[in-house]
């Protein structure tokens, strides 16, 4: 009678990729300009980004003094939609107010 060989079970050597990946996040950036009234910038920041009065003032003043300020981070679609809506709110009043987006490192 032949003796049966013991079965050798080995783990696969390849690593499988985790199935859930964190979505990449995008910053919404507020750019300073010389024309948009401060109060209007604050109003847009509160309305579109749900910042408190205090947060909105700090973000506005930072952009005013340094040229740019990060408003918040979102997934790509949300960041782009909010940046466009906020920029359009300025445009509707004839202001050059500008929001852009950029990927986080
Ligand atoms: N610099 C503008 C002014 O003096 C105010 C302002 C602040 C405009 C921040 C845009 O992102 C901005 N009226």
TrEMBL record:
Q: Which UniProt keywords apply?
A: Hydrolase, Protease
Query: GO biological process annotations for this chain's record?
Result: protein catabolic process; proteolysis
Q: Which residues form the Adaptor protein ClpS core domain?
A: 22-100
Gene3D superfamilies registered for this protein in UniProt = 3.30.1390.10
Could you state a single Gene Ontology molecular function term? peptidase activity
Region (Disordered) location: 83-105
Its biological purpose is as follows: Involved in the modulation of the specificity of the ClpAP-mediated ATP-dependent protein degradation.
Record-linked HAMAP family: ClpS (MF_00302)
NCBIfam families from the xrefs?
PRK13019.1-4 (NF009564)
SUBUNIT field: Binds to the N-terminal domain of the chaperone ClpA.
| Name assigned to this protein | ATP-dependent Clp protease adapter protein ClpS
Q: Give the species this sequence originates from.
A: Mesorhizobium prunaredense
Its gene? Answer: clpS
